[in-house]
From TrEMBL:
Residues 2-59 form the HTH lysR-type domain. Belongs to the LysR transcriptional regulatory family. PANTHER family: HTH-TYPE TRANSCRIPTIONAL REGULATOR, TRANSCRIPTIONAL REGULATORY PROTEIN. CDD domains: PBP2_LTTR_substrate. The keyword Protein biosynthesis does not apply. This is Transcriptional regulator, LysR family. Keywords: DNA-binding, Transcription, Transcription regulation. Pfam families: HTH_1, LysR_substrate. PROSITE patterns: HTH_LYSR. SUPFAM superfamilies: Periplasmic binding protein-like II, Winged helix' DNA-binding domain.
Amino acid sequence: MPTVKQLEALRWIAVLGSYEKAAERLNATQSAVTKRIQELEASLGTAVFDRNRRGARLTVKGEAVFALAEELLSLRDQIVAVGSSQAAPIRQLRFGVTELTALTWLPAFVAEIRAAYPNIVLEPEVEQSSDLFQRLRNGTVDFIVVPDSLWQPGFKSVPLASVQNAWMCSPALLHDRGIVPLSELGRFNILTQGNRSGSGLVFGKWLEECGVKFPRLLTSNSLIAMVGLTIAEIGISYLPLRCFGGLIEQGKLRVIETDPPLPPVTYVAMFRGDEAANVINVISNISRATCDFTRPIRWA
């Protein structure tokens, strides 16, 4: 009779493509994972991986076992969730967030997850959205929080909140106080996070839909750097409105009202499609409870 550990080994080898990556995901040695597969094959009386091909490729029967294993493991997670108010214990959590989340509600999320799981090992990464999505695809993180611009088949997205952005500049750069036609901003440098950023993808697509192309784009990989460049009168940028309100109150930034106005950006928690149901439920609930992009960022 196959064991849960054997089926978990089968799942992660098939999903991640190697015994080495599966061992890392399961917090086990590669030899232990190999032994689980050998024992699984012995109990089934058939090979589940094709040793004649490069990489970890399932045999025809292995594909059938994999599909059933996915169903069984999902049911296991649901049964555990019914029997426990906190669902299955999560011992390690590798996750990625963008700079905006790290600056606003990440501390609240960490506090809540540690309160629920005191012994959990957290391994956060702060990167741009495209880099985080690649890590999720490769299985090196368990979930990411990014703008809703990267979804592909095989992944699950849970909406968290929308962020209202505004065009901003130094008060010394633009003195007009009325509503400015969007195309008029092209007189200045436009500071952007580029196509590796989820918000950059959203705004790039929006500008294209508006039929506006700015001649002078300056790209930065850092949100904080964009703020600094904006204050330094280098150009105009699009920034989250609520969390940078302190800089507006201090007179270091001013909001530019445009026609049309900037669209909101929806942020999601994103998981691989094969992630355990209880992990998705726990992380989604805590993320929704703590997500607050309006939290003010304190500046000197």
